[in-house]
Design a protein that fits this description.
Layout: E1 14-20, E2 24-31, E3 43-45, H1 52-69, E4 77-84, H2 112-120, E5 124-128, H3 129-142, E6 151-156, E7 160-166, E8 169-170, H4 215-229, H5 240-252, H6 256-279, E9 284-289, H7 296-309, H8 314-319, E10 321-324, H9 328-345
Parallel strand pairs: 1-4, 4-5, 6-9, 9-10
Antiparallel strand pairs: 1-2, 2-3, 6-7, 7-8
Helix pairs in contact: 1-2, 3-9, 4-5, 4-6, 5-6, 6-7
Bound molecules: zinc ion.
Zinc ion binds at residues 182-183, 201, 203, 205, 208, 210.
Length: 347
């Protein structure tokens, strides 16, 4: 029988990865041989909107559920990796101003890592969700060579998340704010049209990557401009938030307005990757988010446009890889598990 098993039992000691999101937690188990014990999403409600106490209980529940599902004894668990959306410190203290997912006052300045560690009695290692996804993508791409390679990942969603990985480890920075690629300001020549207003980001910057390459950027900056160029377009009759969400399906049908918007996004990411090329000269440039879930033809066009817009020297062109980030819905939990495994191995 060579039936594919979706759940396995551990062959060695393990770490657990917990991905905390706005509605769900997702959990996984990674054993010391580098094998994930589950192939699919294992979720429970995160209850983050009910405040820290309920949310910590739900994370503890997710932890115990995944051990039960994989028949893993608690004594085999060496550590837990936890990721949440930011902004938070490098050690898992939610911003004192709160965050989109952690708006209740009781979350402001809350140390989610220490609280979970106290609740389950095992070491907990923290990273933000975009960094977790970047770390997983890096390890997926490079496998056994991951610890000698570097990468930069841009993940296009409501905002633009990302991460920088060096020698297989996330670069987190002094304040935990490394890899905030969405807020890197980029040169706009070759990105914007003549007369196009300079895009504004919710962070207060103008002309950063997220102001262009994100759903928020489409809604706030790109679509309002491009609809003035295509006034008879069907999306002109829709409210902007809905129109922004529908744009990808138009892109897949090669609609000229949609392609103009997505080409601007790809060129903005290319400018970001050009900065990266001169900053850390990574082995890989990774691209993830909604565009990856689009039709194969569209996502290949997008990746090609990013690549053409990234100015690499001949030596870099020969050395670097451009790739799409796969398994994005599991990337957070899996990346958190990788971070925990690396932390345990380095003790
Ligand atoms: Zn910004």
């Amino acid at each position: 029988m060579d039936q594919v098993e979706s759940v396995r039992t551990p062959a060695s000691w393990v770490v657990v990865g917990l991905d905390n999101g706005g509605t769900c937690n997702n959990a996984t188990v990674l054993d010391a041989t580098g094998r994930y014990l589950v192939d699919n999403l294992v979720e429970n409600p995160s209850l983050v909107t009910e405040g820290p106490e309920s949310a910590i209980e739900q994370l503890a529940q997710a932890f115990h559920n995944i051990l039960e599902l994989t028949s893993t004894p608690l004594t085999l668990v060496r550590a837990v990796g936890l990721d949440t959306p930011g902004p938070a410190s490098a050690h898992g203290v939610i911003s004192s101003k709160g965050a989109t997912n952690f708006s209740m006052v009781s979350w402001h300045g809350f140390d989610i890592r220490s609280a979970l560690e106290a609740r389950i009695g095992l070491p907990v290692f923290y990273l933000n969700d975009a960094n977790a996804a970047a770390l997983y993508a890096h390890h997926q791409l490079f496998g056994a060579q991951a610890m000698t390679k570097s990468s930069v990942a841009a993940i296009v969603g409501t905002g633009l998340g990302g991460g920088v990985v060096s020698d297989g480890k996330v670069v987190s920075g002094a304040a935990g704010m490394a890899g905030e690629l969405g807020h890197v300001q980029i040169p706009l020549h070759g990105v914007l049209e003549v007369g196009q207003p300079v895009p504004e980001c919710n962070c207060g910057f103008t002309g950063d990557v997220e102001s262009i390459a994100s759903l928020t950027g489409i809604k706030k900056n790109l679509l309002p401009y491009w609809l003035t160029r295509f006034p008879d377009h069907p999306l002109a009759a829709e409210p902007l938030p809905q129109a922004a969400k529908q744009l990808r399906s138009y892109g897949e049908k090669e609609d000229p307005l949609a392609l103009a918007v997505f080409a601007q996004q790809a060129r903005a990411i290319g400018k970001l990757f050009t900065v990266a090329a001169n900053f850390t000269d990574p082995d890989a440039y990774l691209l993830g988010g909604g565009v990856v879930e689009a039709s194969p033809r569209f996502r290949q066009w997008f990746l090609n446009t990013v690549r053409e817009s990234t100015e690499l020297r001949a030596e870099q062109q020969a050395a670097a890889t451009f790739a799409l980030v796969a398994d994005l819905d599991m990337a957070g939990a899996r990346g958190a598990a990788v971070a925990a495994l690396e932390a345990v191995q380095n003790v």
